[in-house]
Amino acid sequence: MQAQVVIIGSGPSGLLLGQLLSQAGIDTLILERKSRDYVLGRIRAGVLEQGTVSLLEAAGVADRMHAEGEFHDGIELCFDGTRHRIDLSGLTGGKRVMVYGQTEVTRDLMDARSAAGFKTVYEAEDVQIHDFDSARPRVTYRHQGQNVEVHCDFIAGCDGYHGVCRASVPESALTTYERVYPFGWLGVLSHTPPVSDELIYSNHADGFALCSMRSRTLSRYYIQCSLDDDVAAWSDERFWDALRQRLDPEAAETLVTGPSIEKSIAPLRSFVAEPMRFGRLFLAGDAAHIVPPTGAKGLNLAASDVQYLSEALLRYYGEKDEAGINTYSERCLKRIWKAERFSWWMTSLLHKFPDTGPFGQKIQQAELDYLVRSTAASTALAENYVGLPFDFSD
Ligand code: FAD
Ligand code: DHB
User: Fold this and answer.
1) Which of 17, 102, 121, 225 to mutate for ligand 1's pocket (most ligand atoms within 8 Å of CB)?
2) pLDDT tens for residues 203-226?
3) Closest protein CA for atom 11 of ligand 2
């Protein structure tokens, strides 16, 4: 078999890259080890930056997002039992974020891909990448009992943190940077109206809490939990009690609870692998970097990598110009490290850390109080939350 670009992984980065390249006439093949339903069953991010929204528009998959998603002009920070609004659009000259779930973005991209007849192989087993340091890379996999070999020009490693692509790069060619946080997030999805019109990020002596949403009738809530916690030990009732405890009195009073339709624990990690290109292999999204979810940057970073990579490949195929390919890693990493910094900062500001004690809590309170009183500090938060402009990081 032949394809110009073989994309490993059908998460948001692989699907979005596939859409941008395929609609420009480049022959792509996506290989995904799980089933379509499994990929769609993963509940993950919910907040899209304007840059991500624009890219989905350019990819021709934004209609349902505009019909069903919701623009948000602000977020609320809750501490000392009081909520304080950060006026995102007022502080950034009118920029805002779109609340629309990663699951829906993924579904829209999958639907567009199958409607256009571009090929994805789900449940591809034992995907392996070969000869990416040569002019003619190969990818092998097994599907429905058959061994398949595909020759291609480029391989895009969009296969997430546990994927095969980064793991196939010789260790000596990679530098990795990592921080593992001593807690996780317990998330619940429920068919209940959101407690507030805007997202609430709460710092509380019991630990962090986040009130988010997917629509006016579907809420997404998270609480900081211990890494040893087991989802089975968290009944719905225990979750709602813990969440209520971490909110201000008004939100605690108005919180509408109901049965959970999904409940899971995610560990928190910061991770970057450098560089992101090895010959004819490119890494994009979680395959190259992870941020802790506080600040909602994971999916948005995946989208900005894909923007750079799709531009680079279109330039290569259109004009035989390799400049975009040669600068891909460097351009991505500038933006990635700024999002890594912001996600680490928001995580440090809002969570309870086991080892910093009462001193750490006092410092957090002082910083939060400064943040909501100082226009300069609020603006720095708002600018990063809505997404730094691309020219800022180039
Ligand atoms: P992924 O979505 O991980 O997609 C990679 C795909 O590659 C998967 O479908 C996987 O099955 C496939 N794959 C892996 N290995 C192979 C292989 N060997 N062969 C073929 N296919 C393979 N971000 C936020 O902003 N907010 C959040 O609340 C949030 N919550 C998260 C919760 C969890 C549990 C996780 C893991 C991430 C969360 N994120 C969140 C981060 C965000 O979801 C990711 O940044 C985003 O999914 C990255 O997209 P991606 O396409 O790069 O990777
Ligand atoms: C969501 C997740 C986040 O990490 C965040 O900062 C905001 C929203 C969400 O899943 O809705």
Assistant:
1) 102
2) 999 999 999 999 999 999 999 999
3) 46
Q: For 26-74, how does the pLDDT look when each residue is reduced to its tens digit (9 = 90+)?
A: 999 999 999 999 999 998 999 999 999 999 999 999 999 999 999 999 9
The closest-lying atom of ligand 1 relative to the alpha carbon of residue 264 is 34
Cβ of 212 closer than 6 Å to ligand 2, yes or no, is yes
Q: Which atom, in ligand 1's list, is nearest to the CA of 220? A: 28
DSSP 8-state class, residue 79: E
DSSP H helices in the chain: 12-22, 36-41, 50-58, 63-68, 88-91, 102-116, 165-168, 236-245, 249-254, 298-319, 323-350, 357-373, 375-386, 390-393
List Cα–Cα distances, 261 to 46, 190, 236, in angstroms: 16, 5, 10
Q: Which of 262, 299, 335, 385 to mutate to test the pocket of ligand 1 (most atoms within 8 A of CB)?
A: 299
Give the residue numbers annotated as catalytic, written as ranges: 72, 201, 293, 297, 385
Torsion sign across C-alpha atoms 194, 200, 203, 208:
positive
